[in-house]
Amino acid sequence: MSISILEIKKRQSGKNQSENSMGEEPEPQKVDDEEEKYEFDMVDQELDDLDKYLVPGTETVYYIPNYVTQNDHDIILKALKEKPGWKELPRRIVKKFGGDVTSEGLANKEELPDYLQPLAQRIYDDFIISSMPNHMLVNGYSPTDGIMPHTDGPAYHPEVACLNLGANSLLSFWKNQDDVRESKYLARVYCEPRSLVIFTDKYYSDYLHGIEYVHSDKMSTTPEDRESYIDNWKSLDTPIGEGVIEKDRQDVRYSITVRHVFEKSLE
Ligand SMILES: O=C(O)CCC(=O)C(=O)O
Q1: Can you list the domains of the chain with their CATH numbers?
Q2: Any transmembrane segments, and where (predicted)?
Q3: Which of 92, 137, 147 to mutate to test the pocket of ligand 1 (most atoms within 8 A of CB)?
Q4: Ligand 1 in contact with 221 (CB < 6 A)?
Q5: What is the pLDDT of residue 36?
Q6: Is any ligand 1 atom within 6 A of the Cβ of residue 220?
Q7: What distances in angstroms separate CA 44 from CA 14, 23, 77, 162, one per listed residue?
Q8: pLDDT > 70: what percent of the chain?
Q9: Cβ(209) – ligand 1 distance below 6 Å
Q10: Ligand 1 within 6 A of CB of 259
Q11: How far is the CA of 34 from the centre of ligand 1 (A)?
Q12: Beta carbon of 225 within 6 Å of any ligand 1 atom
Protein backbone atom coordinates (compact mmCIF):
# COMPACT_ATOMS: atom_id res chain seq x y z
CA MET A 1 0.00 0.00 0.00
CA SER A 2 1.36 3.44 -0.83
CA ILE A 3 0.74 6.57 1.17
CA SER A 4 0.33 10.18 0.14
CA ILE A 5 2.67 12.98 1.15
CA LEU A 6 -0.28 14.61 2.88
CA GLU A 7 -0.57 11.69 5.29
CA ILE A 8 3.17 11.70 5.98
CA LYS A 9 3.06 15.39 6.81
CA LYS A 10 0.13 14.91 9.19
CA ARG A 11 2.07 12.18 11.03
CA GLN A 12 5.24 14.22 11.00
CA SER A 13 3.61 17.34 12.32
CA GLY A 14 2.10 15.37 15.25
CA LYS A 15 5.50 13.89 16.03
CA ASN A 16 7.33 17.23 15.86
CA GLN A 17 4.92 18.82 18.31
CA SER A 18 5.45 16.17 20.97
CA GLU A 19 9.24 16.06 20.48
CA ASN A 20 10.06 19.75 20.55
CA SER A 21 12.11 19.99 23.74
CA MET A 22 13.19 23.61 23.15
CA GLY A 23 9.71 24.95 23.83
CA GLU A 24 9.59 26.50 20.35
CA GLU A 25 6.42 26.78 18.30
CA PRO A 26 6.45 24.12 15.56
CA GLU A 27 6.57 25.62 12.09
CA PRO A 28 3.22 25.57 10.27
CA GLN A 29 3.07 22.74 7.71
CA LYS A 30 2.36 23.98 4.20
CA VAL A 31 -0.08 21.73 2.35
CA ASP A 32 -1.32 22.24 -1.19
CA ASP A 33 -2.89 20.14 -3.95
CA GLU A 34 0.36 19.54 -5.81
CA GLU A 35 1.76 17.58 -2.84
CA GLU A 36 -0.55 14.62 -3.46
CA LYS A 37 1.11 13.60 -6.67
CA TYR A 38 3.98 11.59 -5.10
CA GLU A 39 2.81 8.11 -4.16
CA PHE A 40 5.62 6.59 -2.14
CA ASP A 41 5.90 2.99 -0.89
CA MET A 42 8.48 3.65 1.76
CA VAL A 43 6.35 4.21 4.83
CA ASP A 44 5.35 0.54 4.81
CA GLN A 45 8.91 -0.72 4.90
CA GLU A 46 10.83 -1.27 8.11
CA LEU A 47 14.49 -1.86 8.75
CA ASP A 48 15.00 -4.96 10.88
CA ASP A 49 18.50 -4.74 12.35
CA LEU A 50 21.20 -2.31 11.23
CA ASP A 51 24.04 -4.57 12.47
CA LYS A 52 23.09 -7.05 9.77
CA TYR A 53 24.32 -4.53 7.20
CA LEU A 54 27.74 -3.76 8.68
CA VAL A 55 30.41 -3.72 5.96
CA PRO A 56 32.86 -6.45 7.03
CA GLY A 57 36.25 -5.15 8.16
CA THR A 58 34.81 -1.77 9.24
CA GLU A 59 33.38 -0.88 12.64
CA THR A 60 30.79 1.66 11.56
CA VAL A 61 30.10 1.58 7.83
CA TYR A 62 26.80 0.00 6.78
CA TYR A 63 25.52 -0.91 3.31
CA ILE A 64 21.80 -1.59 2.87
CA PRO A 65 20.95 -2.87 -0.63
CA ASN A 66 17.51 -1.99 -2.03
CA TYR A 67 16.74 0.42 0.82
CA VAL A 68 14.09 2.11 -1.32
CA THR A 69 11.79 0.44 -3.84
CA GLN A 70 12.22 1.03 -7.58
CA ASN A 71 9.05 3.18 -7.48
CA ASP A 72 10.45 5.42 -4.74
CA HIS A 73 13.85 5.59 -6.43
CA ASP A 74 12.22 6.67 -9.69
CA ILE A 75 10.00 9.32 -8.08
CA ILE A 76 12.95 10.93 -6.32
CA LEU A 77 15.32 10.74 -9.28
CA LYS A 78 12.76 12.17 -11.72
CA ALA A 79 11.97 15.08 -9.43
CA LEU A 80 15.66 15.80 -8.80
CA LYS A 81 16.46 15.78 -12.50
CA GLU A 82 13.45 17.83 -13.60
CA LYS A 83 13.53 20.58 -11.02
CA PRO A 84 15.95 23.51 -11.24
CA GLY A 85 18.60 24.45 -8.69
CA TRP A 86 21.63 22.52 -9.92
CA LYS A 87 25.00 24.14 -9.49
CA GLU A 88 27.93 23.07 -11.63
CA LEU A 89 31.22 22.38 -9.88
CA PRO A 90 34.37 21.37 -11.79
CA ARG A 91 33.87 17.60 -11.26
CA ARG A 92 30.21 17.16 -10.26
CA ILE A 93 26.86 18.93 -10.08
CA VAL A 94 25.22 19.71 -6.72
CA LYS A 95 21.90 20.76 -5.30
CA LYS A 96 21.19 21.39 -1.65
CA PHE A 97 18.03 21.32 0.43
CA GLY A 98 17.30 22.47 3.96
CA GLY A 99 19.43 25.62 4.13
CA ASP A 100 23.05 26.73 4.23
CA VAL A 101 25.60 24.91 6.35
CA THR A 102 27.79 27.47 8.15
CA SER A 103 30.33 27.19 10.95
CA GLU A 104 27.55 28.43 13.26
CA GLY A 105 25.14 25.70 12.16
CA LEU A 106 22.20 25.78 9.77
CA ALA A 107 21.33 29.20 8.29
CA ASN A 108 18.47 30.21 5.94
CA LYS A 109 16.59 27.12 7.02
CA GLU A 110 14.09 25.71 4.50
CA GLU A 111 11.68 22.77 4.60
CA LEU A 112 12.77 19.75 2.61
CA PRO A 113 10.71 19.37 -0.60
CA ASP A 114 7.76 16.99 -0.70
CA TYR A 115 9.62 14.39 -2.72
CA LEU A 116 12.42 14.16 -0.12
CA GLN A 117 10.48 14.38 3.15
CA PRO A 118 9.42 10.70 3.19
CA LEU A 119 13.08 9.69 2.88
CA ALA A 120 14.07 11.91 5.82
CA GLN A 121 11.19 10.52 7.86
CA ARG A 122 12.03 6.92 7.07
CA ILE A 123 15.72 7.31 7.89
CA TYR A 124 14.72 8.84 11.22
CA ASP A 125 12.08 6.16 11.93
CA ASP A 126 14.65 3.47 11.17
CA PHE A 127 16.96 4.98 13.85
CA ILE A 128 19.69 5.52 11.25
CA ILE A 129 20.09 9.21 12.13
CA SER A 130 19.07 9.97 15.68
CA SER A 131 17.93 13.57 15.07
CA MET A 132 15.36 14.31 12.37
CA PRO A 133 17.30 14.89 9.11
CA ASN A 134 16.99 18.55 8.10
CA HIS A 135 19.54 18.85 5.31
CA MET A 136 20.26 17.00 2.07
CA LEU A 137 23.05 17.51 -0.40
CA VAL A 138 22.57 15.92 -3.81
CA ASN A 139 25.60 15.17 -5.95
CA GLY A 140 25.49 14.15 -9.60
CA TYR A 141 28.58 12.47 -11.04
CA SER A 142 29.22 11.77 -14.71
CA PRO A 143 31.32 8.64 -15.22
CA THR A 144 34.73 10.28 -14.72
CA ASP A 145 33.59 12.67 -11.97
CA GLY A 146 34.16 12.24 -8.26
CA ILE A 147 34.67 13.97 -4.94
CA MET A 148 38.06 14.37 -3.32
CA PRO A 149 38.82 12.58 -0.03
CA HIS A 150 37.39 14.64 2.83
CA THR A 151 35.63 14.56 6.20
CA ASP A 152 32.25 16.24 6.61
CA GLY A 153 33.06 18.62 9.47
CA PRO A 154 31.57 19.44 12.86
CA ALA A 155 28.36 21.20 11.81
CA TYR A 156 26.57 17.88 11.35
CA HIS A 157 25.26 15.30 13.71
CA PRO A 158 28.01 12.65 13.48
CA GLU A 159 26.03 10.23 11.36
CA VAL A 160 25.49 10.39 7.65
CA ALA A 161 23.38 8.35 5.24
CA CYS A 162 23.78 8.43 1.44
CA LEU A 163 21.07 7.16 -0.90
CA ASN A 164 22.39 6.02 -4.28
CA LEU A 165 20.44 6.61 -7.46
CA GLY A 166 20.76 6.17 -11.21
CA ALA A 167 24.02 4.23 -11.61
CA ASN A 168 26.71 2.33 -9.72
CA SER A 169 29.61 4.02 -7.98
CA LEU A 170 32.45 3.25 -5.61
CA LEU A 171 32.83 5.07 -2.29
CA SER A 172 36.28 4.70 -0.73
CA PHE A 173 37.55 5.31 2.80
CA TRP A 174 41.13 6.08 3.83
CA LYS A 175 42.74 6.68 7.21
CA ASN A 176 44.65 9.81 6.16
CA GLN A 177 46.13 11.69 3.19
CA ASP A 178 49.30 9.55 3.14
CA ASP A 179 47.14 6.49 2.62
CA VAL A 180 45.25 8.26 -0.17
CA ARG A 181 48.56 8.84 -1.98
CA GLU A 182 49.55 5.20 -1.54
CA SER A 183 46.08 3.83 -2.47
CA LYS A 184 45.85 2.14 0.94
CA TYR A 185 42.13 1.79 1.51
CA LEU A 186 40.33 1.23 4.79
CA ALA A 187 37.25 0.17 2.84
CA ARG A 188 35.83 0.27 -0.70
CA VAL A 189 32.06 0.18 -0.82
CA TYR A 190 30.36 -0.47 -4.14
CA CYS A 191 27.07 1.44 -4.25
CA GLU A 192 24.23 0.12 -6.40
CA PRO A 193 21.15 2.24 -7.18
CA ARG A 194 18.49 2.15 -4.41
CA SER A 195 21.08 1.30 -1.75
CA LEU A 196 21.86 3.30 1.38
CA VAL A 197 25.36 3.72 2.81
CA ILE A 198 25.69 4.89 6.42
CA PHE A 199 28.85 5.83 8.27
CA THR A 200 29.41 7.13 11.78
CA ASP A 201 32.06 7.53 14.52
CA LYS A 202 35.65 7.45 13.27
CA TYR A 203 34.52 6.81 9.72
CA TYR A 204 32.64 10.08 10.00
CA SER A 205 34.90 12.27 12.09
CA ASP A 206 38.48 11.05 11.53
CA TYR A 207 38.75 9.07 8.34
CA LEU A 208 38.42 10.40 4.81
CA HIS A 209 35.86 9.36 2.24
CA GLY A 210 35.65 10.16 -1.46
CA ILE A 211 34.97 8.99 -5.01
CA GLU A 212 37.95 8.70 -7.29
CA TYR A 213 38.08 10.50 -10.65
CA VAL A 214 38.21 7.41 -12.85
CA HIS A 215 36.00 6.10 -15.69
CA SER A 216 36.12 2.49 -14.44
CA ASP A 217 36.40 0.83 -11.04
CA LYS A 218 38.60 -2.14 -10.21
CA MET A 219 36.77 -4.85 -8.33
CA SER A 220 37.71 -8.13 -6.69
CA THR A 221 36.29 -10.47 -4.07
CA THR A 222 39.71 -11.57 -2.84
CA PRO A 223 40.90 -9.66 0.25
CA GLU A 224 44.54 -10.04 -0.80
CA ASP A 225 43.78 -7.76 -3.80
CA ARG A 226 43.58 -4.85 -1.38
CA GLU A 227 43.61 -2.15 -4.07
CA SER A 228 40.60 -3.68 -5.85
CA TYR A 229 38.83 -5.54 -3.05
CA ILE A 230 35.16 -4.63 -2.58
CA ASP A 231 34.35 -4.90 1.11
CA ASN A 232 30.58 -5.21 0.62
CA TRP A 233 30.69 -7.64 -2.34
CA LYS A 234 28.58 -10.26 -0.54
CA SER A 235 25.64 -7.83 -0.32
CA LEU A 236 25.55 -6.82 -3.98
CA ASP A 237 22.61 -7.65 -6.24
CA THR A 238 24.88 -8.21 -9.23
CA PRO A 239 27.69 -10.61 -8.27
CA ILE A 240 31.28 -9.69 -9.10
CA GLY A 241 33.10 -12.23 -11.28
CA GLU A 242 36.33 -14.10 -10.55
CA GLY A 243 39.69 -12.34 -10.29
CA VAL A 244 40.24 -8.60 -10.64
CA ILE A 245 37.72 -7.10 -13.02
CA GLU A 246 37.40 -3.54 -14.25
CA LYS A 247 33.88 -2.18 -14.50
CA ASP A 248 33.09 0.94 -16.54
CA ARG A 249 30.91 3.57 -14.94
CA GLN A 250 27.84 3.59 -17.18
CA ASP A 251 25.80 6.67 -16.47
CA VAL A 252 25.31 9.66 -14.19
CA ARG A 253 25.21 8.47 -10.60
CA TYR A 254 23.36 10.64 -8.07
CA SER A 255 23.70 10.49 -4.32
CA ILE A 256 21.64 12.16 -1.63
CA THR A 257 23.65 12.85 1.49
CA VAL A 258 21.16 12.98 4.34
CA ARG A 259 22.19 14.69 7.59
CA HIS A 260 21.04 16.57 10.62
CA VAL A 261 22.76 19.96 10.83
CA PHE A 262 22.87 21.69 14.20
CA GLU A 263 20.67 24.73 14.21
CA LYS A 264 22.55 26.72 16.83
CA SER A 265 26.09 27.93 17.22
CA LEU A 266 28.44 25.16 18.29
CA GLU A 267 30.29 27.54 20.62
O1 LIG B 1 28.33 10.90 -3.30
C2 LIG B 1 28.72 10.30 -2.30
O3 LIG B 1 28.49 9.09 -2.12
C4 LIG B 1 29.53 11.00 -1.27
C5 LIG B 1 29.10 12.41 -1.06
C6 LIG B 1 29.93 13.11 -0.04
O7 LIG B 1 30.99 12.69 0.31
C8 LIG B 1 29.44 14.34 0.57
O9 LIG B 1 28.34 14.80 0.21
O10 LIG B 1 30.14 14.88 1.43
Answers
A1: 49-214+251-259 (2.60.120.590)
A2: none
A3: 147
A4: no
A5: 53
A6: no
A7: 18, 31, 20, 20
A8: 84
A9: yes
A10: no
A11: 30
A12: no
pLDDT in tens, 143-194: 999 999 999 877 777 889 999 999 999 999 999 999 999 999 999 999 999 9
Query: What pLDDT digit, counting tens, does each position of 201-217 carry?
Result: 999 999 999 999 999 99
137 lines ligand 1 (CB under 6 A): yes
Q: Of all protein residues, whose CA lies closest to atom 5 belonging to ligand 1?
A: 257
What is the Cα Rg of the chain in Å?
19
Task: Using the mean position of ligand 1's atoms as its centre, give its distance from the Cα of residue 153 in Å.
Answer: 13
- State in Å: Cα 263 to ligand 1 middle: 21
Give the global pTM.
Answer: 0.85
CB of 139 sitting under 6 A from ligand 1: yes
Task: Flag whether pLDDT at 43 surpasses 80.
Answer: no
CB of 195 shorter than 6 A to ligand 1: no
